[in-house]
Amino acid sequence: MMEGCDVARQEHALVRRALMGVAALALTLSGMGCNVLSKLGPANCDRSIDANPPIPYTEGTVEAGVYMSATWDLDAPKAAQELLYFPGGMRYEIAHHLGEVPRWWTAYLSFDRYGSDTESLAIAAGNQVEVRDVDDTVITLVNATCSEYWLLLVAGGADTTPPDDLPDEE
């Protein structure tokens, strides 16, 4: 009978030592910080400019002083509705064709290539879309997250002069 108790005590002591070892390892790793922990797990996306040089984009349209990188007109050809692929770290230099610095811009994101067709567009927030530069020819954007999106850029306010051929009001 005593032999059974001794075996049970030895097993209990081994389990206790193993649990204390796991707890000590967890405390040690948690004190090392996120950088060390991320090296133990899967690699994060590389968002550096070296790994993600800006990609020029010259498509899109301007109507009534508003630039759109794609249309949300569902009657337009499917190619005109396609949003820009925007994975983590991606940078775009988007030629806005406005002729001067835009006064405003809005970035919309979707998880779908044809976000307006699937009604899954939302305004970007936080570091989903960061503006790195705006001038009279391009807007430079970066996806500063590690998430994958599809991008629609809308910018305008540069041309606020109404066309000369508008009818007079009476």
TrEMBL record:
Protein name: Uncharacterized protein
Organism per entry: Chondromyces apiculatus DSM 436
